[in-house]
Design a protein that fits this description.
4-stranded mixed sheet, 13 strands
Length: 549
């Protein structure tokens, strides 16, 4: 069967190659074809095809392989699940294959349907954001490589513009270099001479200073590795996905009334996973100085200017930002990525990312970890939802978990302090001590050591705060009054506005409830029956705020 991607390119899949009987091949082909109508890339088709291969190999190794899908048993699917559910790759395989099988009406009910409907655990993100030192090494490598290329192209562009403006002495070395650069800008290559052997050599190699790319065609064009370095810097700055660079249009400038010292670019970002109708979004990025976010966009435009201009001349309508010059013509195999225009290629492939990391002795492609680092550093969603931000980028990230440990500990200590602030801090005794001073809520052991000293000496706290003081002693004689106070505070909760009650009475009620737990619910209820008029009068004065120390 044939899968057509968004660009209209076709890719064939031969189900006769699957190691299962013909009837299953036909059934799977029909399901695959129905599902492929929603796909827009060959990458999606390839992913699902590879998972289907895993499934059919599993079936082929059974003692009694089924002849068609309706012969699948729940036991077979349980065994299939057990084989793959323990790894991230296996979970992805299960999810893809089960989504395909669920479309078959023969598997819509019964034990097999129940097995297909079982929840597959979420794939755990395995990437970790960079530590600062790691990020520093990646950025330093990218900055050195791209900045060197940008300066090289900028210098040669100035020479070319002077040549075109007749600003150079005719016949001088600079003039002859300008003439070579003019041809380079129009053809993506310097003049070459065909040798008797049929091979070619750089005609002006002495004038240019050598035959290598840096001395010849890369005077005006980025190499693929230099373009990859630029993409690393953009990802670190804006957290863009690697796939975005394949189709990113050239940013346009946004009019700014009365502003001459800065320029604002409008960048169109494509994210196909968002689904049809939500693929595109725009970001406004301003260049207002050397360290501003937009300065990197300005440099990217300068570094790719000749590549973009040549691509537009060769194929009118081509307007992609991320363009590099290949060393030689190659075979274009990834039809989901833009086709090269002559020697010009667009975007950054996974192979480019991997090779760039190898050159700079880094452990794997830097793009996912760089994006994750930027997202967690910014602390907000970037081209994704809040749910994705939390579940995929923040919570599973090992570095975030480690760096947040101090925050968690501080939060726990703060919670402990708050909890301690709303518990009864004094002592529960069986009888009064003559040496203690009686108050409206408890007996005080020593008012001179109060946590709330009065300016003139002694204790400055109100009587409700006695229960939060370590000097307080509560004996059975206090229980009726305190039980009645507890009852009155509960009744206030039903009549006062929530914020007012919480601010004024909540802590006191919580301390009383903690004291009730220490005294015991039975003794507390007995005390309620012993409340007298004196207790009621004192509690009324306390609640009205008319009883001061």
């Amino acid at each position: 069967m044939t899968v057509v991607n968004k660009a209209g390119y076709k890719k064939e899949y031969d189900f006769a190659d699957l190691p299962v009987p013909e009837r299953i091949q036909r059934s799977l082909a029909a399901l695959f074809a129905a599902q492929s109508r929603r796909w827009t890339s060959h990458g999606t088709a390839k992913f699902n095809w590879q998972k289907l291969l895993v499934f059919t190999r599993f079936l082929s190794q059974l003692e009694s392989p089924p002849n068609d899908l309706d012969e699948l048993s729940a036991a077979t699917l349980k065994r299939w699940r057990t084989t793959h559910v323990s790894t991230n790759t296996g979970k992805a395989t299960l999810r893809a294959v089960h989504a395909l099988l669920k479309q078959d009406p023969r598997l819509a009910s019964g034990p097999v349907a129940d097995e297909l409907a079982r929840r597959i655990p979420t794939v755990k993100p395995s990437k970790r954001s960079y530590e600062e030192a790691e990020r520093g090494r990646v950025l330093l490598a990218a900055q050195r490589q791209f900045r060197s290329a940008w300066l090289r192209i900028r210098e040669n562009t100035c020479l070319l513009e002077n040549w075109r403006a007749d600003g150079l002495v005719k016949g001088s070395r600079e003039w002859r270099l300008g003439k070579v650069l003019d041809q380079l800008s129009r053809t993506a290559d310097v003049p070459r001479t065909v040798l008797p052997s049929g091979t070619t050599t750089v005609t002006n190699h002495r004038l240019l200073g050598g035959r290598n790319p840096e001395k010849t065609w890369s005077r005006l064009f980025l190499t693929r590795m230099e373009l990859t370095a630029l993409a690393v810097l953009l990802t670190d700055r804006f957290a863009w996905n690697l796939s975005i660079y394949d189709r990113m249009p050239t940013p346009t400038t946004v009019p700014s009334a009365g502003e001459t010292a800065s320029v604002t670019y409008q960048v169109q970002v494509e994210k196909r996973r968002a689904g049809g109708g939500r693929w595109f979004s725009t970001e406004n990025i301003t260049d207002f100085g050397a360290d501003s976010p937009g300065r990197l966009i300005t440099q990217a435009l300068e570094a790719t200017a000749h590549g973009r201009a040549l691509a537009a001349r060769l194929v009118p309508g081509t307007d992609l930002l991320m363009v590099a010059r290949m060393h030689r013509h190659g075979v274009h195999q990834d039809m989901d990525r833009p086709r090269p225009v002559g020697l010009l290629t667009f975007g950054v492939s996974q192979d480019d990312a991997t090779y760039w990391a190898e050159i700079h002795r880094l452990a794997g492609s830097p793009f996912q970890r760089t994006r994750r680092t930027t997202v967690t550093r910014e602390g907000r969603p970037l081209q994704h939802t809040q749910g994705t931000h939390q579940s995929v980028y923040v919570l599973p990230d090992e570095r975030v978990q480690v760096t947040s440990q101090g925050v968690f500990e501080a939060g726990a200590l703060e919670a402990l302090k708050q909890a301690q602030a709303v518990v009864f801090a004094g002592h529960v005794t069986n009888a009064p001590d003559p040496a203690h001073q009686e108050t409206a809520t408890a007996d005080c052991e020593d008012e001179t050591t109060s946590p709330w000293p009065a300016p003139e000496g002694g204790c400055g706290a109100n009587f409700l705060l006695c229960l939060a003081c370590r000097n307080a002693h509560v004996h059975p004689g206090h229980h009726p009054r305190l039980a009645h106070l507890h009852q009155q505070l509960q009744s206030l909760q039903s009549v006062l506005p929530e914020h007012a009650w919480r601010e004024r009475w909540c802590d006191h009620l919580l301390r009383l409830e903690d004291l009730r737990d220490k005294v015991g619910a039975a003794a507390w209820n007995v005390a309620l029956a012993k409340v007298d008029d004196n207790d009621r009068a004192l509690v009324q004065l306390l609640v009205q705020g008319e009883l001061a120390p």
